[in-house]
Amino acid sequence: QYFNSGTDCLMEFYVYLSSATSDNVILPMMRHTESGYSTQLDKYDLSVMEDGVWTKGLIGLGRHLDAFQIVFGVVHEEGKYDAGIALDDLTFFDCAVRPPQEECMPNEFHCKINKGCVFKEQICDLSDDCGDLSDENLIECLEF
Question: Average pLDDT of 70-99?
Fold first, then answer.
C-alpha cells in the first residue's frame, strides 16, 4: 500500500503476454484503498505488444494523498484462458515529496509548510508539487 506520492511519481515494469488469440488484455490499475474505487492506468494487449516478448511499461502516477495499491487485472474470453502472462521488475521512481531545505536556488520556490524547493515554473500549474499546496495557493495563481 502506498500514499502521499509526489507529482513526478512514475511506475516502471516489464510485462509478458503470449497468447493464441488477441482477446487477452492486461490492465494496470490504481485501487484507492479508502473508497475502493479503481482507476485503469493503461491497457496492454497484442495490438501494442509483440507476442511472447517482454515489454517495458512506464506509467505516470502523479500526486495522490490517499492510500492506494497498484493491481494488475486480466481480461480474457469467458470460459477460456489460453495465455501466458507475467510481470517483473516493478519499480517506482521520483515518488517522494520534496525534502525540506534551508534555502532554495534563485530559480526555485520555497514551499511554505514542508520547506521543499520546486522550480518557479511549477507554481500555479494546478499540480501540488510542494506536497502542501503552497505552490498553488498563491495570490499570483489568481492571475492565471
Answer: 87
